[in-house]
Amino acid sequence: MPSLDEARELLREFPVVDGHNDLPWALRAQVNYDLDARDIAADQNAHLHTDLPRLRAGGVGAQYWSVFVPSDRPGAVPATLEQIDCVRQLIERYPADLAPALTAADMEAARQGGRIASLMGAEGGHSIANSLGTLRGLYALGVRYMTLTHNDNNDWADSATDDPNVGGLSAFGHEVVREMNRLGMLVDLSHVAATTMRDALDTSTAPVIFSHSSSRAVCDHPRNIPDDVLERLPANGGMAMVTFVPKFVLQAAVDWTAAADANLRAHGFHHLDTTAEAMKVHRAFEESNPRPVATVSTVADHLDHMREVAGIDHLGIGGDYDGTAFTPDGLDDVSGYPNLLAELLDRGWSRPDLAKLTWQNAVRVLGRRRTSPATSGPPAPRPTRRSSPWTAPGPDGGRPDGGPVRRSRLFAGSAVLATRRIRERRRPTAPALPVVGCGRSLRLAIGRARPATGPSCGPAGTTAPPGPLAGSARPPPWAAAVRRVRRARPRPVVRRALPRARRRCPAWLRPPGRAWSSGGPGGSRPEGLGYPRTPYSPGKILQLRGTVALRRSPHAQLTAGVAHDDVRSPP
Q1: Is 277 a catalytic residue?
Q2: Which helix (H) or strand (E) holds 494?
Q3: Is 43 a catalytic residue?
Q4: How far is CA 458 from each of CA 288, 362, 426, rounded to the nearest angstrom?
Q5: pLDDT tens track of the chain, all 571 residues?
Q6: Which one from 150, 282, 302, 305 is the annotated catalytic residue?
């Protein structure tokens, strides 16, 4: 009795976070969501394991309500939405007792306010109908974990209670786990095959949970967790929430259930058949073969073993109330949690250990659902980067001729388009404009081209005055730009790039209609004729992260988005 009082006192400070309760499905099965017929504010002991008075008596501070649909029924998605709507109606109907929760902070706020934090978990990957969009929709509606399978396989994951199909997770199953990690939805590995558990741990970069599973070493049932999987939980950061279902925690109950199921099949019924005829056969078997009864001590045995293997930081509680027909003695309904804590206190568990079991571990895992702790398995493969057309690999993985292709930090496509446009603007007699280098050291080399003999692109009725293109001695047009660049960026790499800019400006680079700059007595030239404008200014050569980049001139309008077909030659 002193242990029970101490357990209740501890639960007032660190209440239970229960990982799985099937009340929404029980409300559907019994009264088709008629919440007046099953008012959980009153005692529902005759019909349900769960109601608000017993949740308070059991010291429950947060509950994951299972939005469950059987895997063998059609229309899983709309039925799951109905389950979500049921949980929302419960929260709206009892606002003084239930608080909506999506995050660890919401759970803490509900505890401080004396209310029960209400979260949701989807039991079975069939609820997303093989659609990542549906998965994202469930997350947006408040679902914070999804069990990858229920009792049957789905198209992308194997169940613990079905014949192997894909050998764990398929390629799409790995995508589901990665998308859940990205969203922040917890991956629940209860109900799944051991191969699926291992595949999910290999893929997940966020903590996983077992919302209602016990130890397979203590009770050899495929719904339970093997020790090698439990040993991986510390590296993953996840947690295993022990369940109370007798046929999962007591080996004698496992053997009895197998015999009872075989008896039903021998009489022509499915082992899960609950019709009147099937139940008559089942009761007759139970009268001659009494059902083994699990106790609080049975569940405590699982917790002792799981603590030795995984550590106290990775344990929790998931009773599976209203999802099972039978419960252990002393854990008959949601008011029985103090009995379990009293048993653990008698076994030497400390108060800090019990605080982690009931509250702290579950809050930590939900708070870290987007983190990426180190895992013992290989990381998820990174998506393949799309290649731009100019870096597309050839037959040997490099250029079409088999050579390697180096990816530039610059948008190299802009420079290529600029080169093409300049070529279109040159006169037919001008020499070709070569492109020197590629990748990180892409450069444009403008040759020392002289225009063909004849009138230039000067003002109407004039010819090109003497200047650098005709061999005059006046200062070259790039001199001022060189001085500005040297003053602004006097680093050696810039100075090495400047000689490349000291090129004569060929006439074919002059844009039509804007050939001359303003001049005058105080202008560019003493005779006032001005300098020829060039659409490509050598002074605009800059150093960008160790790579010589050619800044596009506004006069040339070398726009990276302009297609080559849109470039037109001057008349």
Answers
A1: no
A2: helix 492-497
A3: no
A4: 113, 79, 16
A5: 589 999 999 999 999 999 999 999 999 999 999 999 999 999 999 999 999 999 999 999 999 999 999 998 889 999 999 999 999 999 999 999 999 999 999 999 999 999 999 999 999 999 999 999 999 999 999 999 999 999 999 999 999 999 999 999 999 999 999 999 999 999 999 999 999 999 999 999 999 999 999 999 999 999 999 999 999 999 999 999 999 999 999 999 999 999 999 999 999 998 877 788 988 998 999 999 999 999 999 999 999 999 999 999 999 999 999 999 899 999 999 999 999 999 999 999 999 999 999 999 999 999 998 754 333 344 444 444 444 444 444 444 444 444 444 444 344 445 555 555 555 554 444 444 444 444 433 334 334 333 444 444 444 444 444 444 444 455 666 566 656 655 655 454 444 444 444 444 455 444 454 444 444 444 444 444 444 444 444 444 444 333 333 344 444 333 333 333 333 333 3
A6: 150
Q: Are 118 and 67 in contact (CB under 8 A)?
A: no
Judge whether 255 counts as a catalytic residue. Answer: no
Tokens of 458: 């000067």
313 included as an active-site residue: no
d(CA 150, CA 304): 27
Nearest CA among 31, 9, 150, 152 for reference residue 86: 31
pTM tops 0.70 = no
Among 49, 126, 212, 305, the active-site one is 212
Q: Is 49 a residue of the active site?
A: no
564 belongs to the catalytic site: no
Residue of 51, 158, 199, 320 with catalytic role = 320
* Whole-angstrom Cα Rg for the chain: 37
Catalytic residue among 18, 51, 97, 123: 123
* Catalytic (active site) residue 179: no
Selecting among 18, 22, 188, 301, the annotated active-site residue is 22
Provide the token pair at 383.
């998506």
> Cα 247 to chain center, whole Å?
35
